[in-house]
Amino acid sequence: MRRSALSFLLVVSTTCAAWTPEWTSTWQHPEPQHGTTAAAMLRGPDGAVFAALHVAHHGTGHATLARFAADGGFEWLREDVGGGTIAMTLLDDARIALVDGDIGDASPIHVRVHDAASGDVIWSDATRTGRYAPGATRIARSAGGDLLVATSSGGEVVVLRYTAAGTPLPDWRWSSGQATLSADDMLALPDGGAIVAARGVAIGGGYLAVRFDAGGTVVFTGREDGELGNPLGLARVAGVDDGYVFAGAPESTFGVPKALLWKVRADGTRAWTRAAPNADADRSSLDVGGLVAHAGDVFAVVHGPGAGGFRLLRLDAADGAVREDARAAVEGVPTRLVRGAGGRLLVGGFDLADSMGHVAARIAEFDAGGRPCRSSDAFGYASEAVPAADVDGWLTLGTGAWQAGSSDALVSRYDADGACDGDDAIFTDGFDPSARASSGEGVPQALATNAGRA
């Protein structure tokens, strides 16, 4: 079902002294009563901005794709009935893939590929079922140009695959032996394969990893239990030159999430394990809100009660040593982390706006070394801020306040070349004596390697 917008508002900022957006654009959905949740956004090769959202109206959820011009002007939206988990990626310069589903184990998974210029559906598929739960990266384009979709079924990791033309390919599957799991993050690899980070059952399931080659053969699998084996925060994975870095927040012996990062070499063996520094000696929760790796550095945004401003860690990918630990000026819950072309990083999230439980968006920028730059807590979003890297700036997606029973999408663009004058480093390596290499005593369980297991 196609929809077109009734109107849009474009606001252009004339000053950047307080790091205000260069423009903010919105659209009015044609249905007068609707609720909107931001999911993802990206900049297309032709300069257009695409936003993926979940829109509920008439008692039904819809997966929605909206296109804005390079200057923020609204152009069109397309929607169809869909699940609450939505992901989006560029399939090539002219096509965008949108995938939606739900957390039920046999929920329908809808795959639609849209023409990036017109929004027309080029091909679609709704024959697959599985568990498509919220996570970090759920779809990706393989090195060979195929579309990969990370799902699960019972205790199996299932990667659905399609050719660029829409022909279904055989699934890649690996059974964990557990009753259920959630495939949270996926990284497409240069050799045509992929690695998936997942969580097992809530009690004792641990964090799981499986690496597929281009033919779907399992190269290695792994597991991280932390202290109790209970995976609380999302599983995350990022690639480094000689392996992969994972992050999660397993339950500690104090009964709270304990942010943990670990590196696995290309052959699946453990290189190091690092507990994120916690000034409260692990008595308070600490979760991971985003993970990015680049040029020998690993960046992780962490958060917990009383953690102060948005907090970013920079670790050395070689040994896991914490090289930078800094906080931005804005406080709240960071939920996403992206890296820009120039090396800077942007954290998006939210904070409570009042005692009634309403939230407001927050963003914080860090330089390439992980030191604070600029931040903003006043740009009108009544939701989290979903960030994306632009060619020479930043994009954010959110939703406005409820008005007359509805909320609408808001898209903003920020520059990424302003002065970095923030400086709030907390501590560097050596603060947390319990964070030791995986060969040391008392560290979380090392990743178990099962090379060649199908």
For this entry, give a set of tags.
454 residues, mainly beta, five-stranded antiparallel β-sheet, 0% helix, 52% strand, globular, disordered C terminus
What secondary-structure arrangement, pairings included, does this model have?
Blueprint: E1 2-3, E2 8-12, E3 23-27, E4 35-43, E5 49-57, E6 60-68, E7 74-81, E8 85-92, E9 95-101, E10 107-115, E11 121-130, E12 139-141, E13 147-153, E14 156-162, E15 168-175, E16 182-188, E17 194-199, E18 207-212, E19 218-224, E20 236-240, E21 243-248, E22 260-265, E23 270-275, E24 287-294, E25 297-303, E26 309-316, E27 322-331, E28 333-339, E29 345-352, E30 359-366, E31 372-376, E32 386-389, E33 393-399, E34 409-415
Antiparallel strand pairs: 1-7, 2-3, 3-34, 4-5, 5-6, 6-7, 8-9, 9-10, 10-11, 12-13, 13-14, 14-15, 16-17, 17-18, 18-19, 20-21, 21-22, 22-23, 24-25, 25-26, 26-27, 28-29, 29-30, 30-31, 32-33, 33-34
Account of the protein in words:
The protein has strands spanning 2-3, 8-12, 23-27, 35-43, 49-57, 60-68, 74-81, 85-92, 95-101, 107-115, 121-130, 139-141, 147-153, 156-162, 168-175, 182-188, 194-199, 207-212, 218-224, 236-240, 243-248, 260-265, 270-275, 287-294, 297-303, 309-316, 322-331, 333-339, 345-352, 359-366, 372-376, 386-389, 393-399, 409-415. The protein has a domain at 1-81 and 386-416. It contains no helices and 34 strands. The strands form eight sheets. Strands 1-7-6-5-4 form a five-stranded antiparallel β-sheet, with no helix packed on it. It is an all-beta fold. It is globular. Residues 1-17 and 423-454 have low confidence and may be disordered. Residues 1-18 form the signal peptide. This is Putative pyrroloquinoline-quinone binding quinoprotein. Keywords: Signal.
